[in-house]
Design brief:
alpha/beta; binds acetoacetyl-coenzyme A; globular; 8-stranded mixed sheet; two-stranded antiparallel sheet
Length: 291
């Protein structure tokens, strides 16, 4: 199937990156959010990130202008109905995603492929509540989307071959690499990454190390580009906790128990970079560890 027009629902951290790479690859993009402010912020972020790519010599100024010209923002969700491919990229809460799909379904063209950028929620369950489980799958990008090479493609139990092949061709057109994951809690990347981050929080909670020493250990001792606590702040501690809960509930194994300290940070509203504070405090010139 030929994909030309891509709808992106949710203009947050992931949604703006998805709109960016889709438009850069030549797709017409309709970027939707309930908040006009979020849409303005997303367009400013896309512009800033495209400028980084221009100054790094990765794209030309003409490509940047053409990319911006291919993105249209809208607060009207039904306007996405005519898209060939829709990527839902709203908050990682099942009831929110469910509401979005319910609102979209009456307006969808019969051929539209519906996907979710969920990092952990069951694709089969989300698909089962739509009118097109065979045209539904997981399309999971990594953050920062313009930089990270991987996209996880997750087939639900009913996803058909054509849908998978069409999404695979989109990933290839983006110049990215797809990993095919089966539909089990948190798929591949987060099944491995989140328990590591959670373990880093336990290491902090138990006083084995402080924020700086834990991050330094993994950066210098395992060549990770970011330490696990810095990465948790980058992803968002609420998202990390939500994924640990999906693993804990879905696999019913105590090894996925979210660390109480992670829960406490989320309860405090210290969600990482996006709120200015998490394992580090970002409100000053340089990040300062909070423990
Ligand atoms: N958009 C466009 N370009 C960007 C960018 C963005 N958002 N962020 C960084 N870049 C570019 C920079 O401009 C720079 O380009 P040049 O080489 O041309 O100068 C290049 O990327 C490297 O960036 P920086 O020099 O600023 O910084 P860095 O070398 O420290 O890299 C990083 C930054 C890529 C974020 C790196 O620290 C990294 O790879 N961190 C780990 C990220 C990671 O693990 N992500 C996965 C999270 S898990 C996930 O997303 C799944 C989930 O469901 C939770």
């Amino acid at each position: 199937m030929d994909i030309r027009k891509v709808g992106v629902v949710g203009a947050g951290q992931m949604g703006n990156g998805i709109a960016h790479v889709m438009a850069l690859a030549g797709y017409d993009v309709l970027l939707n959010d309930i908040s006009a402010e979020a849409l303005d912020k997303a367009m400013a972020t896309i512009r800033r990130n495209l400028e980084r790519q221009v100054s790094g010599g990765r794209i030309t100024a003409e490509e940047m202008a053409a990319t911006l010209g291919r993105i249209t923002t809208t607060q009207d969700l039904p306007a996405l109905g005519g898209c060939d491919l829709i990527i839902e990229s709203a908050t990682e809460r099942e009831e929110i995603k469910q509401k979005i799909f319910d609102a979209l379904l009456p307006h969808l063209a019969p051929h539209t492929i519906l996907t979710s950028n969920t990092s952990s929620i069951s694709i089969t369950r989300l698909a089962s509540r739509t009118d097109r489980p065979e045209k539904f799958m997981g399309f999971h990008f990594m953050n920062p989307v313009p930089v990270m090479q991987l996209v996880e493609l997750i087939r639900g139990i009913a996803t058909d071959r054509e849908t998978f092949d069409t999404c695979l061709a989109v990933v290839e057109r983006l110049g990215k690499t797809a990993a095919s994951a089966e539909d089990f809690p948190a798929f591949i990347v987060n099944r491995i990454l989140m328990p590591m981050i959670n373990e880093a929080v336990y290491t902090l909670y138990e006083g084995v190390g402080n924020v700086r020493s834990i991050d330094q250990s993994l950066k210098l001792g395992a060549n990770h580009p970011m330490g696990p606590l810095e990465l948790a702040d980058f992803i968002g501690l609420d998202t990390c906790l939500a994924i640990m809960n999906v693993l804990h509930d879905g696999l019913a194994d105590t090894k996925y128990r979210p660390c109480p300290l992670l829960t406490k940070y989320v309860e405090a509203g210290w969600l990482g970079r996006k709120t200015g504070r998490g394992f580090y405090d970002y409100r000053g010139e340089a990040p300062v560890p909070t423990r």
